[in-house]
Protein 1
Amino acid sequence: MASSTTGEKKILTLKGGDNEEFILEESLVLQSELLKNMVKEERVSSIPLPSIKSKTLVKIIEYLKKHAELTPSNKEEFKNFEKEFVNVVLEELLDITVAVNYLKINGLLEFCCQAVADRIKDKSVEAVRKIFRIESDFTPEEESEFRKETPEAFEGDLDDTTN
Amino acid sequence: MAMSKAAKLPEEIIIDILSLLPAKFIGQYRCVSKQWCNLLSDPQFIKSHQNIHAHKGEEKLIYVSWFCELQTITFNHNPQNGIDIISRTLNLQQLSNSWVSVAGSCNGLVLVIKREEAKYMINPTTLEYHNIPNFDLALPVPGSCSMYGFGYDTLSDDYKVVTLSYYDSFDENEPAITDTFVDIYSLRKGLWKRLESSPYDHPLSDRASGVLVNGVLHWLVCRTSPYSFLIAAFHLSDEKFLEVAGPTGLGSNYSLCNLVVLRGCLCIFTGIGKDMDTVTCWMMKEYGVKESWTKFTITEPNLDRSMCTLLCSVTDDDVLLDIDEELVVYNMKENQRRDLMVDASLIMYEARTFMDSLISPSFVEGN
């Protein structure tokens, strides 16, 4: 703490699930409520995050950097960055969402949830089960009964892909 | 369960994601699993879903067609910067198509009236419906006129249907009863009760249903002595009439006027203006503030000698008009009509806007 003077930035190491290390300025991780508390309370300089894949961590660090640079004048650019940020395969987007939830980066969590919702909204029930890795616990009879009862309130064809 | 490559989503995130899905997609996902079924049918989830989507402003229109069917209209913005209108006929299982009018709308629930004043609460998104029983004290049909209102009372967390009714035929040998009876039905309690009679005269017109703004139902009414027009405001919480000051510029004759909600604001408009090709509309930009009434006009050669009704706002600058039973979208910024792809059949009586929601029309205690 005493060593940190103005101009000299504190450095922190994040360790991803595959033991890859990421060195970044401490100020960046303060956007994460979880890391902020760890840094503030325990004064650590290296934080292991074994549940987060390195690939996911790279994406999140990229976001933290961009978000830290956000000013009123580059709002448009940031919006475009956000759009590109979630333009990944659905499985990767879900990984990011889970990690962001764990790290408690609130603004980004909302954005990721909206992105997932936009991606799954016209998926078929089967596709949704695959995406969320849920096994149906309805018997085939129950399910067909259910579908009969649920009136056709939906418009358009449903998408079976899980991407 | 076998772990695969991707991380498994905790339930709280699944709830967050599903709350962001438009209501029309939710129904089918109830059969994903028993857990999802419980989750998506949970009144708490339905309520928070409604709160999230209430402010998104994606309004649709519902009306009764010439064939006494219920139809909805969805507005879609096309890449050519135009607006497509997509109409759809609602198919409510087991209910015949003998609809008379759409009498109110709130949080995705719509009050619709069938022949013989039969009242149904429907959710046009989930296609659930619920019959509202007749009140024992309801006036006989035929022999009386009724007007309706429907809204949500935040204080008691209850949906309420209001009927205003009076006898329209009198037996010469009996003393005339000129009261306008005010009856109110609580969806939560499933009960009717009669309130004090209305202090006003309620002229019956084609568009006589209460207009809901800020949780208050509005009707154009008259006071008998001295004879004058005003906007009566029925508050659903204390179940009493108050008055809303109208625009000064309108003068005192509201007889050719109608109320409508545009962009969430109470508006009053004249179907036929002094100049025959102009519709004049006042918008109360800040509810309850008399000084906030703002006038705007819609001038359109097609309006000449036509009956014109403002139906709803489509975007911030576009309004939907019914001009002699033709649908027209008018852009107020450019002061001109837009080209429309309309496949809707003609509108009859009242049209109402509604938003997709999951709220159940059979709203009962504990729901």
Protein 2
Amino acid sequence: MRISRKEFLKQAALFSAGSMLPFTLSAFSGSKIENPDITILYTNDTHARLDPFPSNAKEFAGLGGIARRASLVKKVRANQKNVLLLDAGDVFQGTPWFDVYGGKVDLKLMTEMRYDAMAIGNHEFDRGLEGFAEAAQKAGFPMLASNYMVRETPMNPFVQRQIIKEFDGFKIGIFGLGIRLQGVVDPALHGDVRYMDAERTARRMVESLRNFHRCDYVICLSHLGYQYADDRFDDVKLASSVEGIDLIIGGHTHTFLDDPVIINNSEGKATMITQMGHSGVRVGRLDLKLSEANMNHNFRYYTIDGK
Amino acid sequence: MLPRLLALFIVFVFFSGCTLFRTAVAEEEVPLEYPGPDSEIASMLDAHRGQLNHLMDVKIATVKDTLRFGKPESVLGNMVSDAIRSRAANELGKFVNVGIIGDSSFNLFFVPGRLTLGQMYEFMPYENHVVVLTLNGHKVAELINQVAEMGGAPVSGVRFNIDDNNKARGILVNSQVIEPHRKYRVATSSRAANGGDIFPALWEHEERVDLDISIRDVFVDYFRGKSELYDITDGRIR
């Protein structure tokens, strides 16, 4: 395998990007870390970036591209038995691929890559509800939005509040949260889809996933945005105010979080927030190391680069 | 075998002594970071490329120089703000004093050669529309000072200097000094008008008129009308 000096330097830089999280319990080490039990891979705000950024892009020239992302995912799958592949929304809009195909190609290829679920971002409304439904027929995975009322709209067949994935008896509950539509999505585009309060909905979802479905781990796919200075609800406010979410995979604000942010809420429980910028420039990876009594996390991200 | 030796040689030239062996091994153990394209996904994507190219490989203009966004003014910044202002005036059938838009939502700069519709759609990837706001002279001055504080932004209809304290000096709107109580029409994108581009002075407007014109069409039509694009600026912000 031929590796140029430039590539080596990039790889070296990448090593430092991965990190162990501070609250990791130390029951396991070394050998265990190399064989994680559940691997969560994720993207957000891919924005129709099916091809890498062109050479005259203002930023990220040459980065991204779904075929290279797919090959990364495939390689991870070859080494890991239990893989979850998730997206936090805004697959739609951003390149001519969307103008020509309205998201169909993106969703088809994401299905081929075996995405397990995605959140609904505000740009998923860009072609209206009929346009969404037309594209969503290509998606072999559910769209998650627990706080959008979609009944009797064309979105209804494709949207679920939650999914539950079970790996060797370990249950992971995943629910989606969408951003407030008012002021963000043109009412002519979102039609009869109604936004419901994200905080209250999240509390209900966690209660149901934890206590009724007996989930061991709860993930929120959020398109709320990482953090706002004003009173708009965001991932940081969600983590602080709603207990029982282990991981928030966020989007919307296109935030590149080099490390997950840990928020301790009032009960002393930690919620981890992560977000991978946008356009598939990065893919996040969180490995959950499971045991009966405690759990280790190992985080890193990949930059989709190189030819 | 030859490429591999070559790689080792390159590493050897770069590193020396005992680090050579370790780094060379470490490279080969970490194949995940920079994968080549997955051939199945790449061919599925390529199967859709014909239609994409058919619709998007339409010539809009010829780019003669490398054209960029920049501060305090720039050729692309001037063009996009001029385009919004003149198109808004045409649609309204009224004079529009100022055009303004943030440059953060533009994705491309232009290199010499054919400018295609596909590039235009990447240039401005979002489907905003044109909005005309009515501001009094106080607010226009505030807006210009916000632009000055940023070190410049795409703005049309205005000339001024930025002084050492990032204040706007010698502001002229349509070649005249600002009258504080006069009303001015300011054309911008719906994104900027809704707070997406950070120009707070726009948020305290009087009248707001939303025009049914896609901002992408504004740029496509404007560049098509120019036909050849050169790197020329007019010193509106100095």
